[in-house]
Write a structure and sequence with these properties.
Shape: globular
Distance between the termini: 55 Å
Number of helices: 6
Number of strands: 11
Helix content: 10-25%
Radius of gyration: 16 Å
């Protein structure tokens, strides 16, 4: 079998280390230096489910607007687009410009080139800034940032999953809006934190790849009217 080849790197802002893009034959993976594989082109079932459980609930809403925090390899974005109509708008916020470039380049075909979809709008920058500045703007917010509430690549990402960050997400949602959060693993206090903000919460466990591999956690939180 062909060995893995490092084909590009990017610095994670805020001292989070180095992001590394690897290729082997037709497969790609993204790693954090010293921390192992963060995501890959062969294991994205839970990212697909993250988008599915939120966006399938928006089918009756006119011109729904969705915010995705974290582009990754584009699978969450692609799944959202599959479950939304032609009148939808999907804003994807990505902190690292190289990740956007990788998705416009070698990674794009693996997720079906979702950045080329006319419903997609990319905003390079921190999703936290969007959440802090917009009110009642989105029908759904999907957060797939830094492995979830127990992340490890960037300390500032912890704010997203704090009481203040979740309150900002609540306020950025329209009435009956949905917040879907992906996590590499469970978090003992996160569900209760969502409830304290005012969300109604459901928690799911999803396999990372074709009903095998690691079990990931997805929270679906609904804002009130």
């Amino acid at each position: 079998m062909t060995s893995w080849e490092l084909i590009d790197t990017a610095q994670i802002p805020g001292g989070g280390g180095e992001l590394q893009l690897y290729k082997r034959d037709s497969e790609f993976s993204i790693s954090v230096e010293g921390e192992g594989v963060l995501m890959s082109t062969w294991a994205h079932q839970s990212e697909d489910v993250l988008a599915e459980i939120a966006c399938t609930k928006l089918t009756d809403r006119p011109a729904p607007k969705v915010l995705i925090g974290g582009l990754g390899m584009g699978f969450t974005l692609a799944a959202a687009l599959r479950h939304l109509g032609a009148d939808a708008e999907v804003v994807v916020a990505e902190l690292i410009p190289a990740v956007v470039a990788w998705n416009r380049g070698p990674l794009g075909e693996h997720a079906g080139n979702p950045l080329q979809d006319p419903r997609t709008r990319v905003r390079e920058g921190d999703v936290a800034k969007i959440l802090k500045s917009e009110r009642k703007a989105y029908d759904a917010i999907l957060l797939d940032v830094d492995n979830g509430p127990e992340g490890f690549t960037r300390q500032k990402n912890n704010w997203l999953y704090s009481f203040d960050g979740l309150t900002a997400s609540y306020e950025a949602l329209r009435p009956m809006g949905l917040l879907a959060v992906w996590s590499a693993g469970p978090s003992r206090n996160f569900r209760e934190r969502l409830r304290k903000v005012g969300f109604k919460v459901k928690q799911s466990r999803v396999w990372e790849q074709d009903d095998k591999g690691d079990l990931h956690t997805i929270w679906l939180a609904e804002r009130g009217p």
